[in-house]
Amino acid sequence: METKKETKNNLNGNLKKLAEITAWFDDQKEVDVEEGLKKVKEAVSLIKSSRERLKEVENEFEEIKKEIDLDEGKESEEKEVEF
Amino acid sequence: MENHSLFDKEEVGQEVVFSVSEYIEFLNLKIKPFEVKIVGEVGQVQFGPTGHVYFSLKDEKGGAMINCIIWKSSYRTYGIALKEGMKIAAVGRSEIYAPSGRLSFVARMISLAGEGALKKEYDRIKALLEKEGIFAEEKKRPLPRYPHKIGVITSRQGAVIADFLNNLGKFGFNVRMIDSRVEGQEAVSDLLASIKSFRKKDIEVLVVMRGGGSMESMMAFNNELLVREIATFPCPVIAGIGHHKDVPLAALAADAMVSTPTAAANLLGESWQKAALLLERSQRQIISSYERTLNSSNMLLQRSLSKIKELHSRIIGQYREMENNLRLFLQKIDQGLAAARIEIKNNFGRSCSSFSSMLKAAVRQLEYAQKTTALNDPERQLKLGYSIASCKGKILRSVAGASEGEEMDLRLSDGAISSEIKKVKKDV
Predict the structure, then answer these.
(1) Would you give the distance in Å from CA B182 to the centre of its chain?
(2) CATH of B146-271, one of 3.40.50.9100, 3.30.499.10, 3.30.390.50, 3.30.1360.120
């Protein structure tokens, strides 16, 4: 199963590719129908997979303990120094 | 030293006789368990060779005074530069140092007493950190897109964490929380330990939260050490700290600052929400672009089709015209041929009769010619007794062509005679 990091990278990558496809359409003076169809099919696939990733996924919650610096405890044993 | 339990003797009600050390121990047992907070004015302040700080605390009015110690690490943690005359609150326990018999108050925590003093300290630290550029906008890091691993520092008590979790969008976040005190000066060590713990964890964003409160209750979030920890944290930090007038310094140092846990949750979900919107927008743009392409192609096809139809009609029309013309032309030819046929027929008849006449005339002419030829045939003349004389191959038509002594040939009807000319005589 895809890891969350892969999910994030894929989502990033997908959105980037979609932006490239949009820009491709904007840049064409005359869009070739065949080529345009290929791009649309690619876009549909990217959108579908991205939507899958954006589907509601339950969050995970965990309470962890803070790490206490053991050296701090030693000071309680410090002897008072006369001054 | 006598071997007995101090408490036993007390309980039994016997006269207690202590050694000095026993008595000091007895007193320490009594007083050490009690952690108290005392407020007073700082007197003499001395820094020990190990960095621990020795100071006295006295009542503003009246002469009561107590010697205090604060260990180096605690002194550094709370970031209060003790000065004579400063009014502070100290939390700790007292104990008697046996070798000197001296009572000392070991301060676990110190804080400034009074809102005025707190504000003054806030302004001082703020100015110091501002000068160092801790709060500079250029230092603020953007939150990562589509964050997943979130660290949270807040109190388990209260509504803050519940609000945060309830408003966090369901994007599969992995949230790890460390419960920490967030109230008053007491919170400083807890918050510092929590942040240091998260430094070792794999997270993408750290969220530090608490609800609103007075400057005194929020003083931990103005602690210099804490602010520096936040400013140097390895990943972006969101501070969700409620406040009224003075923005907590920890919030100023954070990469993003909001006032409520809901806002912090929304901030984390923002890029995910935007991704959803981006997808919608990309889909609309791409589909509409392609629809325009198809419409344009369709219009081109329609125009082409119309043009083709038009041309087709024109061609057909021209073809029909040509066909018609051809038909008419062929009809004319046909008519012409028919007429020619008739004429030929007629002419042929006429020609035949003319030809017949001509033939007859020709025959007559031939007959005439035959007769004429027959009449003029030299052979006929020869048969009548005439002869043809020739000399040197030439026919003699005149005596002038003959000379005496020459040979002369005579052609008769049935042969030839060779002779010699003896004499030539010309008729006068």
Answers:
(1) 44
(2) 3.40.50.9100
